[in-house]
Design goal:
418 residues; alpha/beta; binds aspartic acid; eight-stranded mixed sheet; binds magnesium ion; single chain; binds adenosine-5'-diphosphate; six-stranded antiparallel sheet
């Protein structure tokens, strides 16, 4: 007997037929004798609709009310799945975040989970074998008791947090792909599924644009040692052997568990970037602080930064990137601080994308990034900015070349299938 968390994303619960399919997956595990907590997302498209309604109602709205609206999508799915399971003769009940409760901080719309109370779930597992169907993405503000949500894609984080709280043997993330691939399989058909990936690599992959797992969920998994298994909800439940030791999917686990480590394991990309270049900035102490201080105060995340050494000792150019959604705000913030900074002109671009190459093996291999620069130049792709760290590097390029760059690097590092 094992204790499992099974999480199903939006596409997997898109309509009643798919919810029935999910219920059969759950029944399969229950019939095999396992204790099961299910975490569900809103049906595909529902959260987008709810977000759009909030925006249309008033562009500048109270985040607490936004949460009250967008948290409803998951409530519907949880209830429908519980009804479906009951209809199949499986003892089940739905739970909302506040009912357990799942306590969060007060950062409405992007709250962090502080504590999950899984006592009642465990009691019901042991006393009557009841399946818990939990609404993902939502929690309760610890101080005010109000409904919070965890940021887009947050049901992954709900699932991993619940798995840690009830000490689950595994947290299965059922989605519309059958695992984590070397890059987004929708963009590179030659991408390969990995059997295993280390938490650290998954964390980089997710934060650099691969949306298969929410970043925070991987962090939580790493801290609590939750074994996360990414797999497909579209496999037919009756085709899966419940006692199989390795069903198709990707295990996110400790680095030590991975025998054969590649130098490069994956490639991520993000088109949600914007570039700001400040021309002829005064080259003197305090200028970086004058630029990045106000951006930090405005809560704008700056990612890549490139500053030239000035030729004349007087002025230089400085380029940095921010999330595309913060582009206008970032521009406004810099323009407001113009007299304190001292510069000639501000240029901006939103048609840029960031391509990142990730691999733990980079720690012990030199020249990995240099190979990429050469390959991109051979394709005539200009690099606007570069950042590197221990296990990854990123380049900023024109958005039009995103797919070409990803495919080029994917083959360069030997990741193409067959
Ligand atoms: P869910 O609704 O189940 O949470 P998501 O849409 O959030 O699913 O995440 C799954 C999607 O992530 C896939 O359809 C795939 O296109 C995308 N994706 C991006 N990068 C990767 C990757 N490296 N491996 C697998 N999927 C990826
Ligand atoms: N429904 C939420 C979203 O679309 C949470 C999730 O699916 O994980 O972002
Ligand atoms: Mg998701």
């Amino acid at each position: 007997m094992a204790r499992l968390v099974m999480k199903f994303g939006g596409t997997s619960v898109a309509d009643l037929d798919r919810i029935r399919n999910v219920a059969r997956h759950v029944k399969r595990e229950v019939d095999a004798g396992h204790q099961v907590a299910v975490v569900v997302s809103a049906m595909a498209g529902v959260t987008n609709q709810l977000v759009a309604w909030c925006r249309d109602a008033a562009p500048l709205h109270d985040a607490r009310e936004y949460d009250a609206v967008v948290a409803t999508g998951e409530q519907v799915t949880a209830g429908l799945l519980a009804i479906t399971l009951e209809g199949m003769g499986v003892d089940a009940r739905s739970w909302q975040g506040w009912q357990l409760p799942i306590l969060t901080d007060g950062a409405h719309a992007s709250a962090r989970i502080l504590d999950v109370n899984g006592d009642e779930l465990v009691k019901r597992f042991t006393e009557r074998g009841q399946v818990a169907v939990i609404a993902g993405f939502q929690g309760m503000n610890k101080d005010t008791g109000r409904v919070t949500t965890l940021g887009r894609g947050g049901s992954d984080t709900s699932a991993v947090a619940i798995a840690a709280a009830i000490k689950a043997d595994r947290c299965d993330i059922y989605t519309d792909v059958d695992g984590v691939y070397t890059t987004d399989p929708r963009v590179v058909p030659k991408a390969q599924r990995m059997d295993k990936i280390a938490y650290e690599e998954m964390l980089e992959l997710a934060s650099l644009g691969a949306k298969v797992m929410q970043v925070r969920s991987v962090e939580l998994g790493m801290v609590h040692g939750v074994r996360i298994f990414v797999r497909s909800s579209f496999d037919k439940p009756e085709d899966i052997d419940p006692h199989s030791k390795n069903p198709p999917g990707t295990l996110i686990c400790d680095e030590a568990e991975i025998m054969e480590q590649q130098v490069v394991t994956g490639i991520a990309f993000s088109k949600d970037e914007a570039q700001i270049s400040i021309r002829r900035v005064q080259d003197k102490p305090g200028v970086a602080a004058a630029i990045f201080g106000p951006l930090a105060d405005a809560n704008i995340n700056v990612d890549m930064i490139v500053q030239n050494v000035s030729a004349d000792g007087a002025t230089t150019d400085l380029t940095f990137t921010v999330p595309a959604s913060d582009f206008d705000r970032a521009r406004g913030t810099i323009e407001k601080a113009k007299s304190a900074i001292g510069y000639e002109r501000l240029d901006g671009a939103t048609d840029v994308s960031k391509i990142s190459v990730i691999g733990i093996g980079m720690r012990s291999h030199a020249g990995v990034a240099a190979q990429a620069f050469k390959a991109l130049s051979e394709r005539n792709i200009n690099i606007r900015a570069i950042t590197t760290s221990e296990i990854k590097f990123s380049v900023l390029i024109d958005a039009a070349y995103t797919e070409l760059a990803v495919r080029t690097l994917h083959s360069l590092y030997g990741l193409d299938k067959g």
